[in-house]
Predict the structure.
Amino acid sequence: MTNPQAPVTIIHDGHVAIVTFARPPHNFADLALIEAIGAAFATADADPHVRAIVLQSDGRIFCAGADLARDNPVEREQPEGTRNPFYVAAARLFAVRKPVVAAVQGSAVGAGLGLALVADFRVAAPEARFVANFVHLGFHPGFGISAVLERVVGRQRALLMNLTGRRIKAEQAAEWGLVDLLVPADRLRAEALALAQEIAAGAPLAVQSTRATLRGDLFDLVQRQTDHELAEQAWLQKTADFAEGVRAVNERRPGNFTGR
């Protein structure tokens, strides 16, 4: 088990590695957290005893996304010819070779939605919400969401989520295929573990081979897409609308956007 004081811990239940992240109260995603989850995934990938992974978080919120008001990873200047480390770490999560089941207990917003989309399956409680809120920030989607979400829910629903910033409730997410299992909150982690154990009961080489056929292109896809997302975010974050969007979200009010 990893250091219990770290933002990410790993425990094992049979052939399942349970990766838990904790950044209370909002579980904001920053570079350190994404890199820590990536390191946990790499550890699980390298362990021949592990056949499946559960990704879960502590608290009421699954992940509220990046804390753009305090620590915007897009605004950091990068040496010419290098890639933004936040997006490098985000894309690397999609390179995990073993199946991942996410247990989503509450809101998955922005980068939190991206984290949920890393998983092959999402088990959700009724309180879960899925939000691509970037337009409410005057921003472009990141974390590969502009590519991966469409593959899960289809183009029209992905457009609806991305262009409206609408909060998708767990029941609707289940109807759309964004949630694979909708379960009572007090059964969430048990059901996510049960699904991971069911997957782990299969022949591990066959499971990994089949998964690679169905999802093996995601890492390259997300790498390409995050380069495009970052380029769009880089100019949008210099606009007055972005500054207003961040203020509006922090002040819990609708944005007053001017197109500048």
The chain has one domain: 1-185+206-259.
